[in-house]
Amino acid sequence: MDFGRLITAMITPFDENGKINWAETSKIIDYLIEEQKSDSLVICGTTGESPTLHEEEKLELFAFALDHAKGRCKIIAGTGSNSTEHSIHLTQEAEKLGVDGALLVVPYYNKPSQEGMYRHFEAIARSTNLPLMLYNVPGRTVASISAQTTLRLAEIPNIVATKECASIEQVTQIAAGAPGSFRVYSGDDASTLPALAVGAYGIVSVASHIIGASMKDMIRAYLNGEVAGAAKLHQKLFPVFKGLFECPAPVPNPSALKYALNELGHSVGGVRLPLIDPSESEAAFIRELIASL
User: Fold this and answer.
1) Which family is it part of (predicted)?
2) 91 is in an annotated binding site
């Protein structure tokens, strides 16, 4: 399974009542594929506000995205949790719907050991035929899967990739030691180009909602050996990479992103509690940020 170089972790549009806005969801899917050049979409990942989506909503979103994308990009279902049993269940339900793959986050809150993480992902892999992508984001989960455990899991045939947010060092270690078919994706927009330089295959991105086409150009330039050109694009895009998360204080994803999209004419609504919309000063910063695009 080739998920491509640019994967967007898609937001979930809400209406004024906090319910899924299906009309806007269809528009965002078209926009991310056609204008922002996404190769794959992660549905119900962190950016999609997975912690506050009910299981029924997740399954509806998986089915809707599949039907609307119509093969124009791959659909990756966010089915991981800190419960192995529930992760297996949701992954199997997503597989029945026909998704192209599943994203499995490192179990959060219960802080499993490395062996516990290995057995968690191994059990999910054995329960499905879907291609699976691991997702290591210690800033959110506290627990962090080690490079060594990731490499053990990479030997399981249907664990085909990882989204790595721990460090460039860990990206390097995994890329150096994994089987040739196993792909490492950065989960940090600002590290896209550095990660490619040390062996990553691509990026699972948030910023691609608004600068995806330029990110695709940067990736293409690097792969074509145009390193200086890629660096210039990275430097140009860097304020957006950082600004979406630091405006001016750290703002939880996707609060800033949704505000930016609304300002750009996409009616994606706000965020569900416990997330809140940006403050007035943060909103002013975001408006200034996107004015430079």
Assistant:
1) Belongs to the DapA family.
2) no
- Cα separation values, 7 from 47, 146, 170, 207, Å: 12, 23, 20, 11
CB 74 within 8 A of CB 1: yes
Query: Active site residue: 163, 185, 201, 222, which one?
Result: 163
Cβ burial, residue 52 (10 Å; 0-12/13-18/19+): middle
Encoded amino acid at 190, one letter:
A
Residue pair 210/293 in contact by the 8 Å Cβ criterion: yes
Which residues are within 8 A (CB) of 129 and not within 5 positions of it... i.e. 6 or more apart?
Answer: 95, 158
The reply to whether 135 belongs to the active site is yes
Burial class (CB in 10 A: 0-12, 13-18, 19+), 168: middle
Q: Which residue's structure tokens are 């703002």?
A: 251
**Of 74, 118, 135, 201, which residue is the catalytic one?**
135
What is the CB neighbour count within 10 angstroms for residue 234?
21
> Which residue intervals of 70-207 are DSSP H helices?
84-97, 114-126, 138-141, 147-153, 168-177, 192-197
The verdict on pTM exceeding 0.85 is yes
**Residue 163 bears catalytic tag:** yes
Q: Which residues, 6+ apart, have CB-to-CB distance to 260 below 8 Å? A: 209, 210, 244, 286, 289, 290
Helix/strand/coil percentages in the chain, nearest 5: 50, 15, 40
- 149 marked ligand binding residue: no
DSSP letters for 266-287: -------TTS----HHHHHHHH
Paired strand residues for 150: none
